[in-house]
Amino acid sequence: MARPAHPHAMAASKPGRTRTAPPRMPPEFPMRGRYRAYTLFDATGLVYLLLGLLALRLAWALGDGEAAWSAAMAGFRNPLYLAFHALALVSVLFVGVRFFRLFPKAQPPKLGPLEPPPAPVILGGLYGAWIAVTLLLGAILAGGIF
Amino acid sequence: MKHLLLRLEPVVWLLFGQGILIGTILLTAWVLVVGLLVPLGWVPADALAYQRAHRLAANPIGRLVLLAIAALPLWKGAHHLRALAIDFGGAQRDTLVAPLLYGVAAVGSLLAIAAVLRI
């Protein structure tokens, strides 16, 4: 059975004769030039992790009964939670726009006999799905439907 | 540990990718309504009163959506924080940082499954 390769499997068995400089971080890292968006994109990981944990807390409270659910929802009125969720909304929009922009560039040239759809079609589908799900789920959560 | 991380990489990448894609698509309305509009009183609190919230979350689709909202962002968060830790602190501590972050995501995901099953 095939085993995963060691991370340094491709390294030379002994140092070569060609001298190589040690790797260095680019001078723009972390917050200048193109690295700013790169670093911020990774930093949204903290926001997503906290969002997941808060959603987990709410789901758990829902199973604990009305008192636990009401207490958890009341906690969300705390200014710290409000500020976090405002930051989270900005983060989610930033991640969505940046990630969806990558999709057309990440397509393979061929999918079997088929070519991937043109970039505007892919982007239209992604943004259309995002907007539709946001409107539908938002309407459900806000009591507009169901 | 490096071998284990490499072996798990396809699974981690699948969950991480879905955390960005599905997580972002679902989280927009979730953050807006649950995190901002209801607490600010711009949407009546009755919309997420216990009886209604329980009814929405207790059906199979509601459970799946709630599971996705709770579990998938954990993987996006864990993977990007790992990348951030490597970029800022180097790869020397990755064998400690990666299991810790993925462990949080894995335990959180199992708790999310338990949470939606007990609703």
Structure description:
The complex is a heterodimer of chains A (146) and B (119). By secondary structure, chain A is mainly α. Chain A is built from 4 helices and no strands. In chain A, helix 1 runs antiparallel to helix 2 (66-75) and helix 1 packs across helix 3 (79-102). The model of chain A has no long low-confidence stretch (mean pLDDT 91). In chain B, 83% of the residues lie in helices and 0% in strands. Chain B contains 4 helices and no strands. Chain B is elongated. The chains are: A mainly alpha (146), B mainly alpha (119).
Name the beta content range of chain B: under 5%
Which range best describes the helical content of chain A: under 10%, 10-25%, 25-40%, 40-55%, 55-70% or over 70%? Answer: 55-70%
- Helix-strand string of chain A: HHHH
Distance between the termini of chain B: 36 Å
Characterize the main sheet of chain A.
Answer: none
The CATH superfamily of chain B is identified as Fumarate reductase/succinate dehydrogenase, transmembrane subunit
Blueprint of the fold:
The complex is a heterodimer of chains A (146) and B (119).
Chain A: H1 35-64, H2 66-75, H3 79-102, H4 119-141
Helix pairs in contact in A: 1-2, 1-3
Chain B: H1 2-37, H2 50-58, H3 60-89, H4 94-117
Helix pairs in contact in B: 1-3, 3-4
In short:
The complex is a heterodimer of chains A (146) and B (119). With 146 residues, chain A is mainly α. Chain A has helices at residues 35-64, 66-75, 79-102, 119-141.
